[in-house]
Structure prediction request, 226 residues.
Amino acid sequence: DGGITQSPKYLFRKEGQNVTLSCEQNLNHDAMYWYRQDPGQGLRLIYYSQIVNDFQKGDIAEGYSVSREKKESFPLTVTSAQKNPTAFYLCASSSYGGKTEAFFGQGTRLTVV
Amino acid sequence: GESVGLHLPTLSVQEGDNSIINCAYSNSASDYFIWYKQESGKGPQFIIDIRSNMDKRQGQRVTVLLNKTVKHLSLQIAATQPGDSAVYFCAENSGGSNYKLTFGKGTLLTVNP
Prediction:
């Protein structure tokens, strides 16, 4: 099936640890995105990538890092510098940046324990 | 309505009625708009999109209206069904080569049987 896959679905992190969220797509899309969603809130952009080996900070990049070594993959690392990491994280991809619809994965719910 | 703090705007309708969900966008340069539906614990799903050279676009049971003069977008759902219950988000792309989609805070639609 074509689509975008996020893993794991649930993730628990101890304070002070870094964790990496996986995002893979087989849609041959150039652009990929990471969003954060807090309860009752909209989606806020963390990072986005228009092409392999290139990525840009979004509105809330502090405490996060990404890489784009392959077209299919855009992992997000939540570092210990992120003060309030508990949230629902959504990865998306699109074929032509923001000019066509973005397809979303099913999300990863990260909880700091 | 406008969102306040952590409380989403809500719309409650009876099954079979028509629903209208509104969105005010922020950037007069935005040239592409999307409506997404998000069910609890899942990623957003694409519903319908519209480009700024159009005022109206229809899909299956859904219609999007764009009023660029007042920077307003609406989603009309005909014959609303219980399965339509979800949070609905509008998203805008601010034009040019900008790859970012900016999301609104969302509206919770509840359909009563």
